[in-house]
Each structure stands twice: as C-alpha cells, then as structure tokens.
C-alpha cells in the first residue's frame, strides 16, 4: 500500500469517528418481573465525562410511534411501569423501547430494545409461603406475588402450585405435589421431624414463556398426636368431700378422659376462732 493510500485510510477512520460523536449505550433490553416493565442498559465504552440518558417507549397499539419516558436520568434503567410516568402499561400489551446517551452538546444514536409481550414474557416471582404445625400434620398457606400491573388471577386465572417438601437434611427424599388451592395440609409425615417446604407457581407455557421462581424453603416441625389430660379428678376426686363441695357435677364418662390417675386423699383444715391455733384433721 502506498503512503498516499495509507494517509487516506487513516484520515477516513478519523472522520468516521468524529462523525459518529458520542457512543451509544450497550446491552439495551426490556425486562419484566411480576408484571412490571423496565428498560435497562450499560454505559457506552470509553466514557470520560458524565453521561445522561433519555428513553422512549412504543406499544403495538400506540397511535404515536414513541412516547417519552425517563428524560435526562443518570441511572442505568427506567421503570416504564412507574405510575408517575403515565405510560399506562397494559397487562397484555406488546412493547419495545429505546435509549440514547447525552454528554454536553453530544448526543448518541438511539438504541432499540427487543420486543416484549407483558403476559407472555414476564417472570413470575416466588409466592409467599407460611407453614403451621397441627400435631403430626403441616398446613401450608400460599399467597400469590403482587403484580405491578393487574393481578395474577386476572392475567392467568387461578394458578396451580408445585409443592415440594422433605425432612431437613434429606432433600433426596423430597415429595412433590401439584394443587390449585392456596391452602393444603401435608399428612402422613414423620412425628417430631422438621420439614422444609418450597412452592412454585405453575403457569402453562402457552400462556407464559418462563418458569416461575421457587420460594425459599420454609421449615417447621411436626409433633405427635396431642392428648389433653382432664382436670376432672381435681374437681371430682374419688375421696369424700365435705357437704359444702358435694354439689359439684359428676364427671362425664368419655374415652377422652383419663380414667385412672393417682389421687391423694383430700385434707380439710377447719376454721378455729381468732387467736387459736389451727389443727389439721385428716
């Protein structure tokens, strides 16, 4: 290559670099978690000054091609579903968004995200799980995550729940069940054993492209069958009572009451005149 050609090539590169101005943001993408909508990006390469960003949104149903969203922000994201922006994100809407960088008088090109359909592409977060012990059984209560736009039931109908449970330290013995009710009782468990429970919301892949996130394990211990000892023999002892106490109702005859319990004779202490000693009479 001649010297003249080399010089022309170098000049051409310099002119192209100057013409392009500020480099645009990188890795621009739309994300959704529990029916929110975020535009996220990374800063341009080789930045040496403060960078601000402006974003805009387009919906497949919009009569206007793009609507302004976050303007002159230093953050690396914009919550497009924030009520303050007034963009009116719809639970079944299809969106794409754009962002550009600004530094002084320089402005980068717009960079566009991929398309995102809210109900199809949102990631469904883990449910809230509570576990209560009832003797040898465990009662599991599940609450759906709160959506930014709409509700779980409105978007997906009544969901199903994948429940996994196992004795602590023995996850290889995990059992699995799928239910539609939000409260379920786990029975046939080992007594006096701590069980850990995880729950995942299941939505058919034809309605949502992502696998629901699984809750953190919640652990609770079982007990044994609970027997309650009566106080019947305290109120109704076998030994004779003074006439004053003989009007106490008789004890009910029921298999729930313990029929044989050790009982000591009742000792009565009669009242003596003031100033005299009390004498115990057995």
Describe this entry's structure for a reader.
This protein is mostly beta strands. The chain is built from 4 helices and 16 strands. The protein has helices spanning 3-20, 118-121, 152-156, 232-235, and strands at residues 26-31, 38-42, 52-59, 67-68, 77-79, 94-103, 106-107, 111-112, 116-117, 128-134, 137-143, 160-167, 175-179, 183-186, 194-202, 218-221. The strands form 4 sheets. Strands 3, 4, 6, 7, 8 and 9 form a 6-stranded antiparallel beta sheet that branches. The chain has a 4-stranded antiparallel beta sheet with strand order 13-12-15-16, with no helix packed on it. The longest helix is centred in the first third of the chain and has 18 residues, at 3-20. The protein is elongated, with a radius of gyration of 37 Å. The model is unreliable at 3-19, 227-236, 251-261 and 266-282 (pLDDT under 50).
């Amino acid at each position: 290559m001649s010297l003249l050609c080399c010089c022309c090539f170098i000049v051409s590169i310099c002119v192209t670099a100057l013409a392009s101005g500020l480099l645009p943001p990188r890795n621009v993408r739309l994300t959704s978690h529990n029916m929110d909508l975020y535009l996220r990006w990374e800063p341009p390469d080789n930045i040496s000054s403060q960078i601000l960003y402006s974003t805009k949104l387009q919906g497949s149903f919009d009569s206007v091609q793009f609507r302004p969203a976050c303007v002159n922000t230093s953050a690396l994201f914009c919550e497009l579903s924030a009520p303050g922006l007034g963009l009116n994100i719809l639970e079944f809407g299809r969106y794409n968004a754009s962002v550009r960088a600004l530094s002084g008088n320089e402005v980068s090109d717009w960079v566009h995200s991929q398309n995102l359909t809210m109900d199809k592409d949102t990631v469904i977060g883990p449910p809230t799980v509570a576990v209560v012990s009832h003797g040898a059984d465990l009662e599991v209560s599940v609450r759906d995550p709160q959506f930014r736009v709409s509700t779980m039931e409105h978007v997906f109908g009544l969901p199903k729940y994948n429940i996994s449970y196992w004795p602590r330290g023995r996850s290889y013995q995990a059992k699995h069940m799928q239910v539609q009710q939000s409260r379920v009782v786990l029975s046939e468990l080992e007594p006096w054993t701590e069980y850990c429970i995880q729950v995942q919301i299941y939505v058919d892949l034809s309605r949502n492209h992502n696998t629901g996130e699984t809750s953190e394990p919640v652990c609770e211990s079982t007990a044994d069958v609970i027997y309650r000892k009566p106080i019947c023999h305290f109120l109704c002892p076998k030994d004779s009572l003074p006439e004053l106490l003989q009007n106490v109702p008789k004890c009910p005859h029921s298999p729930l009451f313990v029929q044989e319990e050790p009982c000591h004779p009742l000792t009565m202490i009669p009242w003596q005149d003031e100033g005299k000693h009390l004498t115990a009479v057995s």
